[in-house]
Amino acid sequence: MFISQACFEGDKIIEHKIITKLQKTMKETIDVEGLLSTDCWLKENKDRVEYVFVAKWKSKDHFKKWVSREEHVEEHKEMNKQKKQGSQEEVKINKTLRQYELVDLSSL
């Protein structure tokens, strides 16, 4: 089993942008081969929000296949191109990615 975790953190004033991104990601995970479950977690304080999207996969290979799909890769290429050209609005969202593989502690 494999867990992918994407954390998006920013000021509350841009929370709607984070939510829009997460809603898009949730739609993209519907009926994906190898995906076992998804959750979205929220942590907030006075001025900041943190949303964590957690996806549980049958295997790392299933995750790699999903994340390397053409439309996802092209979306990131376009975002990077716009950022370099200065045509994309700079939004301060901190993104942290973490990945974990299931370990059977009794076999260690």
Automatic annotation (TrEMBL):
InterPro entries: ABM_dom (IPR007138), Dimeric_a/b-barrel (IPR011008). Residues 2-93 form the ABM domain. It holds the Pfam family ABM. This is Antibiotic biosynthesis monooxygenase. Keywords: Monooxygenase, Oxidoreductase. GO terms for molecular function: monooxygenase activity. It comes from Peribacillus loiseleuriae. Gene3D superfamilies: 3.30.70.100.
